Amino acid sequence: MTWTCEQTEARLSDYLDGLLDPAEWSAFNQHVNACAICTPLVASVAHLLGGLYALEQVEPPPQLETAILRATVGVVGTKHDFWAWLRGLQSPRFVYSAVSVAATIVLLLTASGFNWRKPKLADLAPATVYRKANGQLHVTYARSTKFVSDLRVVYEIQSRMNESDQNPAMRQETIPQSSPKKEPGRTDNTNPSTPKQQNRANDISRRLEVLACEFPFLSSSLVDRRVP
Amino acid sequence: MEQDAQLVQQCLQGDGSAWEELVRRHTRRIFNICYRFTGNRTEAEDLTQDVFLRVYRTLASYRSAHGGFATWMTSVTRNLLIDHYRRTKRDRVTDSLDDAMPVVENKESVGRRPDEQALLGELSGQVQSALTRLSPELREAVILRDLQQLEYIEIQRVLEVPEGTVKSRINRGRIELARILQQMGVRPA
Fold first, then answer.
1. Has this prediction a pTM greater than 0.95?
2. ipTM value for the complex
3. Which of A44, A46, A68 sits opposite B27 (nearest CB)?
4. Is B171 in Cβ contact with A13 (below 8 Å)?
């Protein structure tokens, strides 16, 4: 039996669905194996069928059934409605919203000083929540102000030490208490400096003293770094 | 099938729960036909609703002697899809190969390796994209045969064309779809 390219195209689905009789099947195969046009055609359609069969059923949205029932019979039975409503809650959008609302409530209650270990109904009264939130706000503000101030002091000390490390000539200037002959606010001829610089140095030295009293380990490390 | 016919009878006698059961039994299948035809979930939802609305209104015209209820519903669906296609033809932006968006399937596949799953997922997206580029008459034939696994005789009833035409459309649809996939750069492994 002779077989042509036109026949291959016309009977391709029959071949793929197994509907060709043995003689046709043999002729089809013989032709396709020898034909440079039909080989890729058969391969591509067979590949497509694989892709089509791999397409899975898409799940309809959970609220579709309810919407159909509403559109057709109007009011939906309460039992069905309840389950459909429950299924609707499974949507990611609802879950994300619920989680974010819960997180916000927890944050607000924590910020207002709500005691999670011993919760009381009175703690949820608006006046109590306001008073506690106000107190928390002030405490937080004071703490942050102190923290920023401490940071500034530490940064200033650190920058001063860096300057001192880079320029050994400045060491005398930065540690006025190490020189008993020098008094704050005064300069000598050997280390000339402006009054402004001297005031700043004095200020820093005072802070260093306070810091050294509060943190002895810092004081010892400062000595280690300054005295080779 | 017999159960469907029974439910239709109960429905015609005013049994609301019978209609609910019919909706539950067929929503997924009708939604899938609409989704594969349009490639758009929102349109598929609206069309599925329209199908059920029409079925509900014309339920009395259904005769079980003319075929199963599922085939009848598929026929209604097909008519609505063609109407929708004609209605939106003017509005539709010409498709380009660049906007081929992979479609994420909702259902997980058990027993496949992750690499196989990824390849299949990619191919599925490309096939769905290629489907929407196919002419509607070839598209519906391929969807009914290869996605809904309907028999030729059932497709013949749905499309109301002779069996030879059904076979021819399925064959042409598959070849055309394979060509579109090739144009999209999808080659058989």
1. no
2. 0.76
3. A68
4. yes
Domains of chain B: 1-88 (1.10.1740.10), 114-189 (1.10.10.10)
| Burial (Cβ within 10 Å: 0-12, 13-18, ≥19) of residue B140 | buried
Among B27, B170, B182, select the one facing A44 at the smallest CB separation. Answer: B182
For every residue of B75-142, DSSP letters joined together read HHHHHHHHHHHHHHTTTSPPP-GGG-PPPPPSS--TT--HHHHHHHHHHHHHHHHHHTTS-HHHHHHH
Angle subtended at Cα A48 by Cα A36 and Cα B32, rounded to the nearest 5 degrees = 160
pLDDT tens digit sequence for B1-32: 678 888 999 999 988 889 999 999 999 999 99
Residue A225 has pLDDT above 80, yes or no: no
- pLDDT value, residue B106: 41
Tell which of A8, A13, A79, A83 to mutate to test the B interface (max B CBs under 10 Å).
Answer: A13
